[in-house]
Design goal:
Elements: E1 16-20, H1 22-25, E2 44-53, E3 57-66, E4 72-76, H2 87-97, E5 100-104, H3 118-135, E6 143-148, H4 151-159, E7 166-170, H5 176-181, E8 192-196, H6 205-211, E9 216-221, H7 229-241, E10 246-251, H8 262-273
Parallel strand pairs: 1-8, 4-5, 4-6, 6-7, 7-9, 9-10
Antiparallel strand pairs: 2-3, 3-5
Helix pairs in contact: 3-4, 4-6
């Protein structure tokens, strides 16, 4: 599941209000089968670690290390992300950037013991960056944060720590209500009211992206029904109004397809090549 919120229950309801909270962003999902594991791309070495986040718990993280690279990309997946299932996407990022890749599992998944709370989500990003720097997983070269779908919020939370050469956001927007409404069947949308939980509002995706002070590359797939082009474009416009440097690139395909396109390949390579 790559969705921001699980709205299957509202489809059969004539009229209702749905509150988006932490459990909506990181839904309960079955762990990958024991025989499912992350494939290490050719030319890379893999490391696993459990990273402490204050007194809140541990986060399972994976590093794919390329010996000849000085670039690091921190990848935050969508709400259905498990590191064990991310082989194809991480291989694509490795091929496009030739960078070291770091990713992690969300609270309650694959050994991550953080609670699924806004407090934990907010604290997680800066704590991971600090640990990665102290352990040498992040070196002295350029560092990028990459977020897909819900992962755009986590990537922005990571990048707000500063020192990032760029923030890449694929098929995502800080407008959770708009993203959620796009998941409701068109005929039911007038009958469904989405509200954001007050505690979740503290996970300030938009504010984090602006606070990163990093150039932002937005990737939007033209046939994406969830993060539709209008919603992503409006997100980019708001970011620019707040002083961010934003490049919007459109690609063919639906939700999850953008990174595999020729348009994204050219955009990502050019974006990474501009690092100081």
């Amino acid at each position: 599941m790559k969705a921001y919120v699980s709205l299957a229950a509202v489809i059969a309801i004539a009229a209702c209000a749905v509150t988006v909270d932490e459990s909506s962003l990181i839904p309960d999902m079955e762990e990958p089968a024991a025989d499912v594991s992350l494939t290490t791309p050719e030319g890379y070495l893999r490391s696993d670690a459990l990273i402490p986040v204050g007194e809140l718990g541990l986060v399972h993280a994976v590093r794919l290390d390329r010996a000849d690279s000085e670039i690091t990309v921190l990848f935050a997946g969508g709400s259905g992300h498990f590191t064990a299932r991310a082989s194809r996407r991480l291989a694509r990022l490795a091929a496009l950037t030739h960078a070291d890749i770091i990713t992690f599992d969300y609270p309650g998944r694959s050994g991550s013991t953080l609670p699924r709370t806004t407090e934990a989500l907010v604290e997680m990003g800066p704590a991971l960056v600090s640990s990665f720097r102290q352990s040498g997983w992040i070196g002295t070269g350029p560092v990028y944060a990459y977020g897909f779908s819900f992962g755009g919020a986590s990537a922005s939370n990571i990048a707000r720590t500063g020192g990032f050469s760029g923030l890449i956001l694929e098929s995502t927007s800080s407008d959770i209500v708009a993203m959620g409404r796009n998941m409701v069947p068109a005929l039911a949308r007038p009958l469904v009211r989405l509200e954001v939980d007050e505690e979740l509002a503290a996970f300030d995706y938009f504010g984090f992206a602006v606070a990163s002070h990093a150039p932002i590359l937005l990737l939007a797939a033209r046939e994406d029904a969830q993060a539709d082009l209008a919603t992503v474009s409006a997100f980019g416009a708001r970011l620019r109004e707040s002083g961010a440097t934003v490049t919007l690139v459109t690609t063919p395909g639906g939700h999850g397809d953008a990174v595999y396109s020729a348009e994204a390949e050219a955009a990502i390579r050019a974006f990474v090549a501009t690092a100081p």
